[in-house]
Amino acid sequence: MACAASTEPSGLLDRGWRVAPQVAVRPEPFGALVYHFGTRRLTFLKSRLLLDVVSALADHRSARDACRAAGVAEDELPRYERALTTLADTGMITSRES
Amino acid sequence: MSATASRLVDQLETGLDAPICLTWELTYACNLACVHCLSSSGRRDPRELTTAECMAVIDELQRMQVFYVNIGGGEPTVRRDFWELVDYAVEHHVGVKFSTNGSRITPQVAARIARTDYVDVQVSLDGATASVNDRVRGPGSYATAIGAMENLAQGGFEGFKLSVVVTRENVGQLDAFKRLADSYRAQLRLTRLRPSGRGADVWGELHPTADQQRELYGWLLDHGESVLTGDSFFHLGGYGSALPGLNLCGAGRVVCLIDPIGDVYACPFVIHDEFLAGNVRDPGGFERVWRESELFSELRRPQHAGACASCGLFDKCRGGCMAAKFFTGLPLAGPDPECVLGHGERLLAERDDTPIPKPSVDMSRKPPRRVPAKACTQSPLEVIPAR
After folding, report:
1. B46, B50, B56, B195 — which has fewest CB within 10 A?
2. What angle do CA B46, B47, B50 make, to 5 degrees?
3. Per-residue pLDDT tens over the stretch B248-268
4. Cβ distance B97 to B134 under 8 Å?
5. A8 pLDDT exceeds 90?
6. Cα B14 from chain centroid?
7. B326 alpha carbon, distance to own chain's centre
8. Is the CB of residue B89 less than 8 Å from the CB of residue B69?
9. ipTM of the complex
10. Which residue of chain B comes nearest to A41, CA vs CA?
């Protein structure tokens, strides 16, 4: 389970994240499938843009930077923040801090 | 997580680069003879894939990034190379979930499985009491499954699956199944009885009645994601809100079956030539069958709703299960035999005597069981002593 801080909407975008070690990401025409071998949970990324964001997380200082690098528009950021929050809450992505 | 307006189910119906959920029956050999066996298992097929051939399939699955396989049978653990194959899959980042009747889940095996996150196990049990279970799965099978679950719990395996096929006889035991699973820190998994394999011989007697279906639907809604269903009850969506899951027929789109001799079928419940897409031994292997077979391409094209086109509930049940229709002799474009509005039942009653398709494979050790002639006055099952 993700730490309590990850469920706070504010802050997530300003921290660094990466795909969790037990997680595999498989690109598909509609986006991607994300599978967690520990929880055996399967999640669908429903756009290629979200896949680009998730793939870029590890290479950027913050999730906000990863979103920008992937080409997410400013007014779209809240939607992507919500998506990343869900991924964090289900352990698919994990904070690089702590 | 909807980042686009298009519905996921529409995307999935056009197919994926690789299956999400791949069932692989490793052998038709089985030490039990369950009356409803979906694969008519019993004897080993001498043409079974060799260890090397199985490993080659695993290599392909790794390349295609298939996250995990559902291994079944038959009883897969009777294969002498079973653990070798499990280890090989895990080393190649293909997770394994295998189904078993529990007969080989010793304390040592349980401890071994508990050590890795990449192996999951589901123990089959079709009654919360020995009397209900053993009528379907055979004498002693309840005790065997309970013993296996005890070993798994003792071995420290949390969250293994207790897998139940819902029948007319056990649908009243859902709470008892849940308590049983909870007591072993296991997760309950309920799936639908299909008229597949030997299941065709007992489906008429054992599939839940309309009233029972309604109850089942309510129970599933109440329990949400705490109970797994393998997405098998989406035909009940017509009762109201959708059940958790993808709610579509995944045959050839997100699921498929590899059988013990390498034949690839659209789903585990349609072992019939009409749904045979190819063989993993063919040039191009499994990947080519999945991506290029004519059958799978056809299944990924928009399907006709047929008689269901004008029904307001079609969007919820999507016409139900292809296998259930096929093996009860109903047209594929039309209602499921268990349609919540009763359209399937009506069609079944009106059926003429056109022969119902039979499975292409029958490895049963005994002649298939027949239901009693005076079905309504007798026990719905006749357990014939082993000869």
Report:
1. B46
2. 100
3. 899 999 999 999 999 999 999
4. no
5. no
6. 22
7. 16
8. yes
9. 0.83
10. B67
